[in-house]
Structures are given as structure tokens and as C-alpha cells.
Design brief:
The chain has 185 residues and is mostly helical. The protein starts with a helix and ends with a helix. The mean pLDDT is 95. Helix content is 69%, strand content 0%. It contains eleven helices and no strands.
């Protein structure tokens, strides 16, 4: 890892740990996602500056000082953009784990579209890292993470309301990533 990468990722880590300090489970989840993202960056020769920094920052929109809309991917991305983070990082945060499906249902699709979405290996890697780490930082399968998320958010949640379109996307990401990882091994 280069000196530039360490500084960039260190800054992201410090921001996330500071903002998420009042949310210990979210903090543990974020630490696990960042660790998983670093592994994926190494295994798949991805830019760790963007991937690992985005992993550290992906859930900062849950932190009180960042909440505006109550939709954490958008609130996190807006916070990053307002504080001068590169658009590439803010866009990864905005779109992680199929956020566009929930945003559309909540009437926030146009606001989320301010951050360009790319369905590429980097985006897949962040989503896969998020979908293979449970809420307390433990490693889980994508299917177990999906089931847990639906239970945790409850039957009236936006996640449940869009699951019919979001879950196929998350399953496709998992399939693509597991195929890439098998080839890289």
C-alpha cells in the first residue's frame, strides 16, 4: 500500500470511527466491511484508495451529525461532498448495496442521481464487502445477511418494500464477486 493510500484510508477511518463512536454495532460492522474491502482490493487488484476509504465511510450517514434525509447512503454522500471528498468516494457511498432501489421508492432517486452510478467491479466489491459482514462485524453469507437485514428493518421498512428488485441485484453482485474471487484464487 502506498503512502498516499495509507493517508487517504487513514483519514476515512478516522472520520468513520469518530462519527460512528455513539453507534458501537454500526462501528463494528464498518470495521469489518473495511477489512473485507482491503482483502478484496488485494485479491482483485482494485484501487484501495477508493474501495477501502468508501468501505470506512459507507455508513456514516447513520451518524447524527450527518442525518438530513434519514436515508443513510445519501446523507453520507452529501456529508462527504460537503467536506471535499472526491466524487468517486461519495458516489460509492451513495450507491452501495443497491441504494438506488430504496432511493427511488422513497422519492430520493433524483437526489441520489447527483452521484454517478457505475455498475463495475469496484461498486460490486463495496456491495459484496457490505453484504458479507453482519451488523456486529461478523462474517456472514450474502443470504444470511439478507435474511438478517429484513428481520432487523421489519416488514414495513423500505428495504422490504423494494426487496423484489433489490435482492436480485444483490444476488447478482454476490455471484459476480464469488466468480471473480474463484478465478483469482
Amino acid at each position: 500500500m502506498s503512502v498516499r493510500t495509507r493517508a487517504f484510508v487513514t483519514a476515512a477511518r478516522e472520520i468513520a470511527l469518530d462519527l460512528l463512536a455513539p453507534l458501537p454495532d454500526r462501528r463494528r460492522h464498518t470495521e469489518g466491511v473495511a477489512t473485507r474491502a482491503a482483502e478484496l482490493a488485494s485479491a482483485l487488484d482494485l484501487d484501495p484508495d477508493i474501495l477501502v476509504a468508501a468501505a470506512w465511510l459507507h455508513d456514516i450517514g447513520y451518524a447524527g451529525p450527518t442525518v438530513v434525509t434519514g436515508f443513510h447512503p445519501l446523507d453520507g454522500a452529501d456529508h462527504l461532498a460537503a467536506h471535499g471528498w472526491p466524487l468517486t468516494v461519495a458516489a460509492q457511498v451513495a450507491h452501495h448495496s443497491g441504494a438506488r432501489f430504496v432511493a427511488a421508492a422513497r422519492g430520493l432517486g433524483e437526489r441520489l442521481a447527483a452521484y454517478p452510478f457505475a455498475e463495475d467491479l469496484l461498486s460490486d466489491a463495496l456491495t459484496y464487502a457490505d453484504q458479507t459482514v453482519g451488523p456486529c462485524g461478523d462474517r456472514v453469507t450474502p443470504a444470511d445477511r439478507h435474511d438478517e437485514m429484513l428481520r432487523r428493518h421489519g416488514p414495513e421498512s423500505w428495504n422490504v418494500k423494494v426487496d423484489h428488485v433489490r435482492y436480485p441485484y444483490l444476488s447478482a453482485v454476490a455471484f459476480r464477486m464469488e466468480s471473480r474471487l474463484a478465478l483469482a484464487a
